[in-house]
Amino acid sequence: MSDRVKVYFDGGCRPNPGKMEYAYVIAGVAHAELDAGIGSSMDSEWLALIAALKGAQALGLTDFVLLGDSVAVIDMANGRTKCRGDSVPHLAAFRALFADGAMPNLRYIKRTQNLAGIALERARAR
């Protein structure tokens, strides 16, 4: 049985482009940012991924998997698709966080499975 910690992330934007927000969930604890500036939905997904990785690192986690529902961001971060335009600086910021170590495990999950999306909705409702 694996002790790997699941770290969920999700970003949003209303309207698109517009006010960005994101959330991440680590070990059942939700963290939300409802005022992440102005940008696109893609920008907000990158910010969520970066925040989730920083959160995992701040907790000293070594065995974790980043889980998100943005195929585009996950594919760019994993090097499966070419990163272009506004995503280039986000990819650089993401990679800088593990420059001295191995790339973290990063996987796609369905939107309905993304606990960070649920946390983001709850944070908005407050």
TrEMBL record:
Please verify whether the record's keywords include Zinc-finger: no
Instruction: Please indicate which superkingdom the organism of origin belongs to.
Output: Bacteria
| Keywords carried by this UniProt record | Nucleotidyltransferase, RNA-directed DNA polymerase, Transferase
Among Pfam families, the record links this protein to: RVT_3 (PF13456)
Q: Name one GO molecular function term.
A: RNA-DNA hybrid ribonuclease activity
* Presence of the UniProt keyword Transcription regulation in the record: no
Domain RNase H type-1, residue spans: 39-115
Name the InterPro entries on file.
RNaseH-like_sf (IPR012337), RNaseH_domain (IPR002156), RNaseH_sf (IPR036397)
Q: What name does this protein carry?
A: Reverse transcriptase-like protein
Q: Which organism is it from?
A: Sphingomonas glacialis
